[in-house]
Write a structure and sequence with these properties.
This protein is an alpha+beta fold and 176 residues long. The protein has a single domain, classed as Transcriptional Co-activator pc4, Chain A. It contains 3 helices and 9 strands, in the order E-H-E-E-E-E-H-E-E-E-E-H. The termini are far apart.
């Protein structure tokens, strides 16, 4: 869906359950665009069935009451992708990632592009950012070249890292 009204979220609307789900997710405000992310069904790698470790991912980007991008409970990431994402963000924030790095996943709807820049002292510069791309499906259900791109500043990237850590830790606690 490229654009639609969010409308009122009441208990009888389909959006109400999705809205409640995001209370436990991540919400970022990126230059006036609100991005919400929720990851469910993550399984730690020691418990993963390699053939079926899909997470249920919900992501919405909206601006001024208009939905710009939406996926609800979609199999966009595997549990191993969540861990790879966490490790890549950690490397980016610590300065270990020295050059632009594209992070792709099995499903092509999401892509992160890490753009590290460094101060003279070698620390990660404030102008470093991560481009979070959300690809639209074409009418035939195949990912198209059209995407919504949000440039996440370091503060957003830290929040994303903390959210991924909570997803991974919450699931481990439930299993143990």
């Amino acid at each position: 869906m490229i654009s639609a009204d969010i409308g009122d979220m009441n208990e009888k609307s389909a959006g109400y359950e999705q809205n409640r789900r995001f209370e436990n997710g991540l919400t970022l405000d990126v230059i006036g665009i609100t991005m919400q992310l929720f990851i469910a069904d993550y399984v730690p790698k020691e418990y993963v069935n390699e053939d079926n470790d899909w997470c249920a991912v919900s992501v919405i980007a909206s601006m001024g009451g208009r939905v710009l991008y939406s996926q609800d409970n979609a199999e966009l990431l595997q549990s191993s992708d969540v861990e790879r994402l966490y490790l890549n963000i950690s490397a980016f924030l610590s300065g270990e990632m020295k050059e632009r790095t594209d992070l792709d996943f099995i499903e092509p709807e999401l892509r992160l592009v890490f753009n590290p820049f460094f101060d003279e002292d070698g620390s990660l510069a404030e102008e470093s950012f991560v481009e979070f791309r959300m690809y639209y499906d074409s009418l035939d259900g195949i990912a198209s070249e059209n995407f919504l791109s949000l440039n996440l500043e370091k503060e957003h990237v830290v929040k994303l890292l903390n959210y991924l850590a909570s997803v991974m830790n919450r699931r481990r606690e439930n299993i143990l």
